[in-house]
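Internal ticket #5521
Category: modeling
Description: The requester needs a full-assembly model to guide mutagenesis choices. All entity lines are attached below as received. Residue total reported by intake: 946.
Assigned to: D.W.
Attached entities:
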Amino acid sequence: MKEIIEKAKELLSQGTVDLVIGYEQCGDKQCRPLFVQKPEEADKLVFNEFCVHNLATYLTRPEVKQTKRVAIVAKGCDIRAIVNLIIENQSTREHVYIIGMNCPGVVSGKAPNPTKPHTKCQTCKVRTPQMSDVTLGPTPPESIPMDKTITHPDVEELKKKTREEKWAFWREQLSKCIRCYACRQACPMCYCNRCIVDLNTPQWIDTRSNLRGNLDWNIVRAYHLSGRCIDCGECERVCPANIPLMLLNRTLQEEVKEKFDFESGYDLEACPPLTVFEKDDHENFIR
Amino acid sequence: MAKIGVFVCWCGSNIAETVDVKRAAETIAKIPGVVYSVDYKYMCSDPGQDMVKNAIKEYNLTGVVVASCSPRMHEKTFRKAASEAGLNPYMLEMANIREHCSWVHDNKEEATQKAIDLIRMMVEKVKRNKPLQNIKIPVTKKALVIGGGVTGIQAALDIAAGGIPVILLEREPSIGGHMSMLDETFPTLDCSQCILTPKMVEVAQNPLVTIMTYSELEKLEGFIGNFKATIKKKARHVNVEECTGCGTCWTKCPTKVTSEFEQGLGIRKAIYIPFPQAIPSRPVIDEANCMKFTQNRCGICAKICPKQCISYDDKEEFIEIEVGSIVVATGYDLMPTSAFGEYGYGKYPDVVTSLQFERMVCASGPTLGDLQRPSDKKKPKTVVFIQCVGSRDPEHHKAYCSKICCMYTAKQTMLYRHKVHDGNAYVFYIDIRSNGKNYEEFLRRAQEENKAQYIRGRVSMVYQDGPDLVVEGADTLTNSQVRIRADLVVLATAMVSPIGVKELAQKLGIGYDQHGFLTEAHPKLRPVESATAGIFLAGCAISPRDIPDSVSEASGAAAKVLGMLSKDELEKEGVVAIVRECSCTGCQNCIRVCPFTAIALKDIRDKAGNLIRQVANVNPGLCTGCGTCTPTCPSRSIDLQGFTDEEIFAEINAMAELH
């Protein structure tokens, strides 16, 4: 990955950016985020199928926001998060230098044996990244066309269940939640400096790890992500309780796609549909 | 420590019959924090209000709950009383135990329990209420009247008479509206133009009135007292200042177009003024028909104009104006006659609408008042008038009565007999409605002196037989079939809301019904107000009306405008949204959902002036307290004062803990 290292060195030494966020190898089958502030530190930068993390989540951290300009190594899917952050006024296009990576796909599953390909990569529309300032890496396989509607098999399976079966399924899954909030920390779209769950006057969400509190928390988070989730899968990857959080998120995103013909993170001009109203919006939910 | 007073109203028997008010007051007295709880027959009466005032002073109350009717009825009354006793008015809440309880239940035990719950919820809320201050907002002393028919003209004149500048907006090239098309008017048979044109001239000459014709409202922002309207001035292609209205252009224009003003019975040119008394008496080029625009040739008018005031390159203009108040007087249209196949409109040239008939008999009409039927210019010897065409027909068309057709049909039979003394006028009717001053007498004159023959029943079909039309119908009074050979058939088609009104209402943020008629704030007690503060309604925009009703409503709306604009400052409720800046991320959700554009981003800077972050910021003058922003905030950083999360949560908890 010489070209990333060279690019990072160039950006840092020329003063274009004062921070590069990328990946470094840690162990055979694992990578981790790397923050490079000096050109000589850039040698550790890598890019391979273990670069799963969505580094866009760091763009909203105060330390990163304070930089003059930041460069970020981003896959096409990660750029969707950057697009949303710009739309939601959490970053600006000028502040971020996007080192876009051509990406044949990354792995899924957890270390030390993350071998199977990631679900999101099978339906990827942005193997060649959009909107990057520079694009690196060999030409990837062709992406799924932008206008194709993606349906995930696991969402289809879930839809086949009756309402009672779904309720039982989610009760069982969400009862496993230990309220560590790793999902929130990893999620690039969860950037509030005071999360609603931390609010105690009034306390809308029970913070105890019981079923009611877990349902409240996970449903509120899923709802906050509807029309905003960019399908990076970070919440599910970091969840120590192995809750299929992406199933919840994808169900909502497919719903948004169906109702509003909207997929988030592809268009800098588009707003999350649940925060705008148009005269020709569907009104069939009013009965 | 909260000291709450609770006042349970009987509302005569309205509440007391279904709710055990005594028990409710006694139960509530036991809630911690409640220091005074009482029931009384009419809390809204003077003695009732005095009870509230006295208790506030005597018990040093920090909050009051009045359990009675809807706050929409008496919240103002009681908040005023509280304020007179020295309590911040927002520390008084109403528990609605009438509309939400006694009126909708009949089991006294359960209704009493529900009433207690409702009061308990409000007690818990009022304990957490914070004193709020009303907000004072400046007023732009200028009004906008939308619609330049007789209603709009009257409203503009009356507002100007109060010394307030008015902009009169009309989408057609001239003001005057439908009234300028009419011949003579019921019940006095005075010529419509003779009584309208003096008003048109008066409004044109009034220095406080600015007339904007051929213009439409493009966008409206702002709020009561401070509206900002964007007006789209369509391209007229004629320099209105330079033009003298000499008429050379339209005399020489080679393109003939059927005239809208003559209801398709006459022609106009592609550059035209709609009628001789048009105001402004300046022509306009109809781009859809002018050869310069359709084929890029001709250009005669520009060549021939002695003042060179024609420009084909004119583009539509957008003008921003600031006004404090708006009157919507958009009038009506007639229902498209294509809907009535059975009457043969469009198929038979001698089947016409009532408005076409007006033009046929009008001295300024295409035949200069000489009544000729369209097909062969023959003077019709027998005319059949059909009433309720499209009106009072819920199965097929409109369920409502168009209100004016009975009277104008009677008038038209008279006008007809005045032109054709030996003519026969037949009227098919369902019922006759003549409930206005001198209306019944007028109708009798049509029937008795002018020999109009009224047949009660519907027409089943109209068909052509040789040069004549045959009208087949039922006479339900004699229970027989009627067949009349007629020379002319006149349809009294339903009045409907004009095209574009729904879009206009959406721009204005006012309501409309399923027919597209604008909705009053209250059908009886606030008939000329819309539900949006500062926007008033008048005339046929609300529902079918005759000229006297429209004109009086115009004056009514003008009085409302003048009342509002007579003040230098308007006071509005302190119920507005407020941002917790410490946790706001500036994500702009609230900004996007706010229907009143009351929220904007605010920069937070450090001492050196560097931008640290941006947060939402509410303009309290623009905020109406609708609360749309609060649920959309992911971090709950925007709250509605008077309905804060904490207050609402306390209400829900009070209810949830009981069950």
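Resolution: model delivered.
Comment from assignee: The first strand of chain B starts at residue 4 and ends at 9.
Ticket closed.
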